[in-house]
Amino acid sequence: ILNVEQSPQSLHVQEGDSTNFTCSFPSSNFYALHWYRWETAKSPEALFVMTLNGDEKKKGRISATLNTKEGYSYLYIKGSQPEDSATYLCAFIRGPDADKLIFGTGTRLQVFP
Amino acid sequence: DAGITQSPRHKVTETGTPVTLRCHQTENHRYMYWYRQDPGHGLRLIHYSYGVKDTDKGEVSDGYSVSRSKTEDFLLTLESATSSQTSVYFCATQEDPSYTEAFFGQGTRLTVV
User: Is the Cβ–Cβ distance between B91 and B32 less than 8 Å?
Assistant: First the structure.
């Protein structure tokens, strides 16, 4: 993998369902992996910044895990609510420059009441 | 909210004219970025800055130039606007890409006719 890839591209779930998305990235020269939440007509907002292999982060019903050796991160949403509807972006920073935040194309989540 | 302001918020311009977009921050962050958002492509990096007068190209830099004469301001110039540059442009700032989150401006919708 040369760039950041996210799957699925879009997801429709019912309120109360739990869901997860995948972000795949090059495993060499890893520096950091970010997750952002992007609501329609707004700007992206950060959820997590992850730097260490095995990192697990949690914010309310949203959590994320990181595997730098195999080059993937999972984002989990437990008990999805309609207000969780958004596009979820992951972004990757790679050495040696470690100064460019490169984004995936995102997973668009729609939660139906 | 992080103090990042983009101007203008909306602009319509004619093909062949130069256009400058401004990003202003009050956070004193070292790094500043310009992205464009297009359907199916997510956020693509145009140019970025890692300090005053220090800039570098991103993945879609052709037809764009940038300048950063002071910490607070990062200007994006379309030297001769083309219809393919119709897009929504986002500025972002960050103190340290490896450890801190990025903060985004509200976006500028540019239409080239």
Answer: yes
